[in-house]
Specification:
heterodimer; A: 472 residues; alpha+beta; five-stranded mixed beta sheet; four-stranded antiparallel beta sheet; 18 helices; 14 strands; globular; B: 395 residues; five-stranded antiparallel beta sheet; four-stranded mixed beta sheet
Chain lengths: 472, 395
């Protein structure tokens, strides 16, 4: 099985791309690092060097030392950017308030997103972070990397930016943290021309889509999460870079109902893998679980003695639809009653698997609380077969977007628009009928917005006619 | 083609559109898969967690891939990433992967490569003593805490993120390296209500929150903000237009209506909310995103606000530990924190976690009614007896 990239991929060899020599990369000793002080006093930050969890302060300090020892012409922005960031962080701890100014409109020509402008409000004290703009770099699907790629990215970013990053931002991008305005275009050009790599989304546009590990290393993925993520990201490049939406829009791709990328909580359009045939069962392996030969739950409970595995208590009784039972030593499942919650499959991964007739469920409208409260995605389309290049999915995306772009208010997410207009309107937009699966329960008030065409005779009546039957 | 070393690289500011390439999108994922992943794509049969942080995935071809998962700070310098590359080059043929929860995964294709990799990872420490690559974050344990930017880069935070995550994970480190919980525990952290980290469906959510209404910079407001947009930004209609004594157009705020969401500040820099004493940490619990057994759930507010006590947040760590300890001691196997709280009842949750229940925890926003208990099904706890006493029903 192999996938075709949309454009031929330039092979990136670090030795051909690199900026820094080995000598420059190894320009300090451990002893120097131990004795190294940054130029500001940062007792609270330094307290965060203690303890077992990896210390971001300790990491930042080695970058500060590395920059300290590079030659003047080996970096295009201020040498002391890390020192000043830690210095400002210390002051923020003292003040209990952030010291980043509000906003700042910067970017690269032709794009409305991908760069977040940021300026310090303590520029005299911390001149090296006077500008501290961020770039979002669109990560490859499910975040596998080659070291050639990562090392090249590091050289580019240390040379033209702060050398500080996020792996990764909340939405999934690689985040370049902090550079000056002058370097934004040069970085964009290097990314595009040399690394064949684009920026991600920000602002009122399609945000960088993200996906779970999928078929790359998971036995449960019901569709090619990486491929769908890659295809839709490329297909909607215009929407990702040029804001035309009322607010942000997120796609997330989960391969199964375990939802490892939290699509159901975080995506305006959540794609969750599922199946419509039967759970596959290896009865011999079921017996091996019962006999204690295989650790249940993929070994996840190995840290504590939970006693002997009890299939009745741990699987059958916990099944939310009670659709499983044992019969003549065999595990039986009434699959038509199963809601595919994955519990039994999670508990016995060597005995049970999702079915083979797989597809995606599509849910709409999740978002964090700003503004009308948090929402989870609404189950809208129960099951779809779809194959690269996912034309049937794109048709649905386009219908939802057309409506949202027409009717959505400034900063109104799709989920809020659906609430404002009601689900029936949204179904009309998508041209799909209602189903009971869309609700937890039917409405408990009878305030139905009957439409004129629903009611015999329509709404057209006259008071004169009424009065022929009823005295005033 | 080498990376440019000219000051402006390939960019010519005199002709900004010349040679501009756009809309390339992300690079293709396939080239970053190590051979064992390419060869077994879609053929994985099952997985097993061998010990905390070490997974094996077995393919129907008979191939196996062993994964060593380590905690990462989402904030990383190029120095750290280069060290990750050194490890990946040495042990993993030059491939590495990051997870959605900021962990790093090193994969090898045979078990006899695992020990050397583990030893190498655990031997690497920062000069000040913390691990660089602690192994763990799997199964029924605590995995990495996802978080937002905080004071490192954000203009609206009500607390810092990286430092709080460091403090909490130092405190709970044994659980990152262990798997002794009834089920997995996902802690998430967002430094303001914007929730870039979307923490609202986590077992435990740490949320920076403002508690003072905006202060208004009347002098500049009209020139830097669109007043109608500021007014429209407020979900409770607390903002209305006004004129200052000098006759400048500005806005005024009905303070009792403010619920401190900060949406106005997002629209307008002249109405900042942040304040040392006002800003606090709200703790939520009982959410999840998986559909396993029960539907996904929102996290519920269980601690309305503890102070921002930099840099170690002892009050936050204490509250989190109380919840974790009570859960670990009391929940059934496979129960997430929210499932457990619902089974024992939220009144019992507060009792077992030794957390005070205050009026702040009773919803009075839009859909509050959905959270009212409209039945006689309750359990007696000290909080209930106090009500009976206050009502004159018992001595």
């Amino acid at each position: 099985m192999a996938f075709e990239p949309r454009e031929e991929q330039k092979e990136l060899k670090y030795d051909e791309l690199r900026i820094y020599s080995d000598e420059e990369l190894n320009n300090y000793t451990e002893e120097e690092l131990k004795n190294f002080k940054i130029k500001h006093d940062i007792p609270m930050c330094e307290d965060l060097e203690k303890g077992p969890w990896p210390s971001f302060v300790a990491d930042a300090k080695r970058e500060a030392l590395h920059r300290r020892k590079l030659a003047d012409d080996r970096m295009m922005i201020e040498r002391d950017v890390v020192d000043d960031l830690l210095g400002q962080l210390e002051v923020s701890f003292q003040h209990g308030e952030t010291h980043w100014k509000h906003g700042g409109i910067v970017g690269v020509f032709g794009y409305g997103g991908g760069v977040i402008g940021r300026y310090s409000d303590l520029q005299e004290r911390f001149p090296s972070i006077a500008h501290f703009h961020t770039l979002r770099v669109n990560q490859p699907a499910s975040k596998f990397y080659s070291t050639d790629y990562l090392r090249s990215l590091c050289d580019l970013w240390e040379y033209r930016g702060s050398g500080m990053m996020n792996f990764h931002g909340s939405t999934g991008d690689i985040i370049f943290l902090g550079t000056f305005t002058e370097q934004l275009e040069p970085i964009f050009f290097e990314l595009g021309h040399v690394m064949q790599q684009d920026l991600g989304g920000s602002g009122s546009n399609l945000r960088t889509p993200s996906c779970c590990i999928g078929k790359a290393r998971c036995e449960w993925s019901c569709y090619d999460t990486q491929d769908m993520c890659y295809e839709l990201t490329h297909y909607y490049q215009d929407e990702l870079h040029r804001p035309a939406f009322p607010y942000k829009f997120k796609f997330k791709f989960d391969g199964c109902p375990n939802c490892c990328v939290a699509s159901i909580a975080r995506a305006d359009m959540s794609f969750i893998g599922t199946w419509r045939d039967n759970i596959r069962i290896d009865q011999k392996a079921v017996q091996a679980y019962i006999g204690g030969e295989i650790d249940p739950n993929g070994g996840a409970h190995k840290g504590k003695d939970w006693g002997k595995f009890d299939i009745q208590k741990e699987v059958l009784d916990l099944c939310p639809t009670q659709c499983m039972w044992m019969e003549d030593g065999k595990l039986m499942i009434d699959d038509k009653e199963c809601t595919r919650c994955m519990h039994c499959i999670n508990v016995m991964p060597q005995a049970l698997w999702p079915g083979e007739d797989t597809g995606v469920s599509i849910l709409f409208g999740a978002k964090a609380p700003i503004l009308e409260g948090a929402q989870m995605s609404l189950l809208t389309i129960p099951f779809m077969k779809t194959e690269h290049p996912y034309e049937n999915i794109k048709e649905i995306v386009d219908k939802a977007w057309d409506w949202w772009m027409e009717e959505g208010k400034n900063r109104e997410r799709l989920g809020e628009l659906i609430q404002r207009y009601g689900v029936p309107k949204f179904l009309e937009v998508l041209e799909i009928p209602p189903m009971p699966q869309m609700v937890k329960e039917p409405r408990s008030n009878p305030y139905i917005f009957w439409k004129e065409e629903d009611v015999p005779g329509g709404f057209e009546r006259t008071i004169e006619d009424y009065r022929t039957r009823h005295a005033r | 083609m080498a990376l440019s070393q000219e000051r402006l690289g390939r960019y010519n500011p005199d002709k900004p559109m010349e040679n501009r390439v756009t809309d390339l999108g992300p690079r293709h994922f396939w080239q970053y898969f190590p051979p064992v992943i390419q060869n077994n794509y879609g053929k994985w049969k099952y997985h097993d967690i061998l010990e905390p942080g070490i997974l094996v995935h077995v393919s129907e071809t008979g191939d196996k891939v062993f994964t060593v998962r380590v905690g990462g700070c989402r904030f990383m310098t190029v120095e750290h990433v280069r060290e990750i590359c050194d490890i990946a080059d040495k042990h993993c043929d030059g491939y590495v992967r990051f997870t959605t929860r900021n962990n790093i995964e090193f994969m090898v294709d045979s078990q006899n490569k695992v020990e050397a990799l583990k030893k190498d990872l655990m031997s690497r420490k920062h000069v000040s003593g913390s691990y660089k690559f602690p192994i763990g974050g799997t199964g029924a344990g605590l995995t990495n805490i996802v978080h937002t930017q905080g004071y490192i880069h954000c203009h609206t935070p009500a607390t810092d993120a990286s430092s709080m995550v460091k403090a909490v994970l130092d405190d709970l480190f044994e659980h990152f390296q262990g798997m002794t919980f009834p089920a997995q525990v996902r802690i998430s952290m967002a430094c303001c209500l914007n929730m870039c980290g979307a923490v609202h469906c986590s077992d435990i959510a740490l949320l920076g929150y403002h508690r003072k209404p905006p202060i208004i910079d009347h002098e500049v407001l009209d020139s830097v903000c669109e007043i109608p947009l500021v007014i429209a930004a407020c979900p409770t209609a607390a903002i209305s237009p006004t004129k200052t004594e000098e006759g400048k157009k500005s806005v005024k705020i009905k303070e009792e209506r403010c619920m401190f969401c900060g949406n106005c500040y997002t629209m307008c820099m002249a109405v900042p909310l942040t304040d040392k004493e006002g800003d606090c940490v709200t703790i939520m619990a009982g959410g999840k995103v998986s559909n396993r057994i029960h539907p996904p759930k929102f996290s519920k507010v269980v601690v309305p606000g503890v102070p921002n006590n930099f840099p170690r947040y002892p009050e936050v760590c204490e509250a989190v530990r109380k919840i974790i300890n009570a859960y670990a001691a009391d929940a059934n196997k496979y129960e997430r924190i929210g499932d457990w709280a619902e089974r024992i009842g939220w009144e019992r949750f507060f009792e077992k976690c030794d957390l005070p229940f205050t009026e702040h925890l009773i919803d009075d926003y839009r859909l509050a009614y959905d959270t009212y208990r409209t039945s006689t099904l309750f359990k007696y706890t000290d909080a209930a007896w106090e009500v009976s006493r206050a009502a004159g029903g018992i001595d």
